[in-house]
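Loading example: each entry is read as two labelled lines plus one structure line.
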Amino acid sequence: MTFDPSYALEFDFGRGQVRMVNAGERVVIPSDALLALCHGTNDDVVRDFGRRLGTEAGRRMNDRLGEAWQASLETVVEHLGGELALMGFGSLGLERWGHALVLSFRHSPLAPSGDFLLGAVLEGAMQRSFGRDVVAAKLMRDGDQVRFLIAGYDGANKVFGWLSEGVSWGDVLSRLAGADRGAS
Amino acid sequence: MSQEIALLEKLLARVQRNAARPRAVLPAQSAAAASPAAPPPFAPPIEATSVAPAGLDDDLAPLDSSPVFESSPPEAAPPYGAGFDSSPEASAPAPLDHSVEDLLLADPFPSSSIPPAHPSLTDMLDEDERNLLVSATSPPPIASEDISAVMSRSDLAQEAPEELLEEDIIEMSPTSEAEATVPSRHDLADLNFDDEDQDSDLPGEPPASSPRHKVARAAEHLEIEEDREVPLKTPPPESGRQAAVALPPGVHAPLAPDIEDLLEADISPIGGVSARLPTAEQLGQTIELEEARGPHLELESALAAPPGRSPIDGPHEEFEVALPQREFGGGYQADLMPPPEARQDLEAHRQRMNAEARAPEDAPAPESLAQDPSQLPDEPTSGFASVSAPSNVTTDSYSESVSTVTVDAPQNAEFAPELLLRPELNPSPVAKYIRIDPLRPHTFLELLDASLSLGSN
């Protein structure tokens, strides 16, 4: 089943409302205003705000897919990416580095300062769609592309530690895979 | 004998007469004449060196033409030899200043009427007296002119000579201008008495003006003239320019040889030998060869040709020797005696040949490679036994994979090698390649769980 965005948004000019199919009203605001709001608050507020957005996207994906836990990689990327695209967060991508799951955004209107918000959106979506509490650790940003490693809390802590030491994101993934292989 | 007695008496009378005569001072002219070779007291001033470069202007020329270096006063740096000439008596001629020509022309065997060539003691005493008279006055400087003159010593005393002998006439002939212009200081104002004091301070050395010193100097000059050698004196440690020591009158340095004469001497053969023949230097050392030992061989002319030979094959000349024929090839004359140096070597060679001839009798039988080594006779040659020739071999295998070979060592072996063989191994895989299938998650949830598990342990 492919993602069909037709008539996903409904603009009611008489009432002055924007509605999304199978969802409530939406407010179209400038992205820089949203960033300014995020900068004015602390990280917990931004994380909650972002997770709330992601939960909405995950719920709508589940409504489309029915049983999301049986969905393939391509299907999740297509539908979850479609929902996030309708919200205006950019194009979602998926990279698999061994056992590591890396999700990326391209062409996001948010500046690099909004990467924290994007990570929170992904965490909310994963939690809502698959029932897993995940941590979206930002690995790198190259131009208009930003990569997030979807990991648990232990793995995320190691990744943050290595990144703070200056280890490149490729070596971080290698070390993470090596540490997991040595433990097993 | 009577003549000698008369001569001695005459000399004695002259000595007594001179002793009774009061000593007088010679006039300055005579003293100056007595020392014709004395140079002016001061050397001519050294000309100022002009260092003006050629490219300078004429305005600057007078400034640059001023002398840069002043001539040093004579007192500052006395020339070498001034110490000898500083004494006034040095300006007077030496008592034995005979010219070399006079000495060479002197009769080696003088007659009894002529006094000996060497001055007697009385003459030297007279000379000392005259020198003392001369030293009392300072000789005036004379111009550097020709000073060659012949004068008699009696002129020094301003009296008529009683007897003018041949040895009393000396010829003052300076050999070179350098000898005539030897700087000496005769000015009384420039006399340095410190040097005299220093000289007099030397213990055991008489002053320069003493007669004993003069006698010693005269004897030294006499020895020098007899040996015809110029004494070598080590100059004092002085720096700067030093003047050459004036040689005694009549003695001059050897002249430089003529280069043309030397070249002609090198080209022309020595002793009339032809130039085509090698010289002695080219031949080097001559080594005389020993005469040949052995029988004396002579070539004889063939009286008659052998009967089997044609007259054409015979020698054409009288001393031509025909080559040996085939039947004589490789032969030699048996009665030839070896040289004595080779007898020892020949004897050693014969002994060695005899030992080799007896060796096969004493040596064991040759070993055949085709023969079984176990059948070879046991001969203990050393403490080690041959491993390749076991007398008994049994196989005790305790396992299927390990084979043990037991070898009975020979009885005569003290140390038998122990062989350890590596057990045989059945063919089995020695390497294991572990192929890991990459994770191909079928669902997104599988990948999500795998990613969440990273770093959890």
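The radius of gyration of chain A is 17 Å.
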